[in-house]
């Protein structure tokens, strides 16, 4: 079953000089259930715009988005989808637990249930000892874990990520990759993420969609058949990274 299906998606934006800038053209994409799909391509190819269209934050000018075979305009339960942004966007005046529980507050989940779900998610991402810490008391990796926990607390079936680990150092980024893979397998989630890091795409994804810029369109869809976990230093991963760079 395809959890997300895009059909002939097109999008343009009006520039300040009054000219239309075509960002996406005729994008067709199928994302199977429980798969991990990476969107890669040069800057300006519309990766983030495409992710925002899937999330319902931006409306396409043409084409349609289907979520679980339901047109997105008719899709009611947006709690099945969560979005992890490039910035962690933690509120500095809220504790880790309060930041993680923000989505549950927005959906009106009762306080007792909210507290229990936050507790379980903090354990899941390894932050149970930092529930009462404020963002300035957390390391960069911990802040990313908190942002991931906030995305997971609503129990989404689909997790969208827009370069969420780009500002982390390599060792912490590798740890976050392991966490995403572990949690996605444990929860049976479908993951769609944007990245400029081709190694990250190969390490995480089972399908990589390469977008060609101006306007953005699908140049190639690559399947990564390597078993998990994938060591970035292994010859097999290095070869897939080399071939992916050649296609960009």
Automatic annotation (TrEMBL):
Q: Which CDD domains match?
A: ABC_NrtD_SsuB_transporters
Cite the PROSITE patterns for this sequence: ABC_TRANSPORTER_1 (PS00211), ABC_TRANSPORTER_2 (PS50893)
Q: Give one GO term, molecular function aspect.
A: ATP hydrolysis activity
| Domain ABC transporter: start-end pairs | 4-238
Keywords (A to Z) from UniProt = ATP-binding, Nucleotide-binding, Transport
Q: Which Pfam families match?
A: ABC_tran
Q: Does the keyword Transport apply?
A: yes
Q: Which PANTHER family match?
A: ALIPHATIC SULFONATES IMPORT ATP-BINDING PROTEIN SSUB, TAURINE IMPORT ATP-BINDING PROTEIN-RELATED
Which family would the database say this protein is a member of?
Answer: Belongs to the ABC transporter superfamily.
Recorded protein name is ABC transporter ATP-binding protein
Q: Which organism is the protein's source?
A: Xanthobacter dioxanivorans
